[in-house]
Amino acid sequence: MSHFLPDITGNARSFSRQNFRCTKCNAKYRRIPLKGECTKCKKGNIILTIAHGSVIKYLEIAKKIVSKYGLSNYLRQRIDLIEQEVKSLFTDEKKSQKSLLEYA
Ligand SMILES: [Zn+2]
């Protein structure tokens, strides 16, 4: 278990840091560019490099392991934080997709 744990938080962490990327030129973004289009080639769509579902699934597994093995509050808090971060990331994505539709 002791090896597995840092992996969980590490992986969850990297999931939460997934970037957006341009489908045409592969430019990477930390956040969706303001207009929702690639600022480099101005043609590509911006998509997340990882599916929402797999992040959530992973976090669920991590949480189960944490509660099953009665792991430290520290780890639990870390996973909670990551979860919030992931949620806000995907909320932002939805918002900007919605605003794109509004302007279309
Ligand atoms: Zn591009």
Characterise the protein shown here.
By secondary structure, the chain is mainly alpha-helical. It has one domain. 59% of the residues lie in helices and 8% in strands. The chain is built from three helices and three strands; from the N terminus they run αβββαα. The chain has helices at 4-16, 52-68, 73-103, and strands at residues 20-22, 28-29, 46-48. A three-stranded antiparallel β-sheet has the order 2-1-3, with no helix packed on it. A hairpin with a 5-residue loop joins strand 1 and strand 2. It is elongated. It starts with a helix and ends with a helix. The relative contact order is 0.17. The mean pLDDT is 74. The site of zinc ion has 8 residues, from loops.
Shape: elongated
Radius of gyration: 16 Å
Provide mean pLDDT, rounded.
74
Give the structural class: mainly alpha
Largest sheet: 3 strands, antiparallel
The order of strands across the largest sheet is: 2-1-3
Number of strands: 3
Into how many domains do the coordinates divide?
1
Percent in strands: 5-15%
One letter per element, helices H and strands E, the order comes to: HEEEHH
Alpha plus pi helix count: 3
Low-confidence stretches: none
Specify the helix fraction band: 55-70%
User: What ions, cofactors and ligands are bound?
Assistant: zinc ion
What's the N-to-C terminus distance?
A: 51 Å
Please summarize what this structure is.
The protein is mainly alpha-helical. It has one domain.
Keywords summarizing the entry:
binds zinc ion; 3 strands; 104 residues; mainly alpha
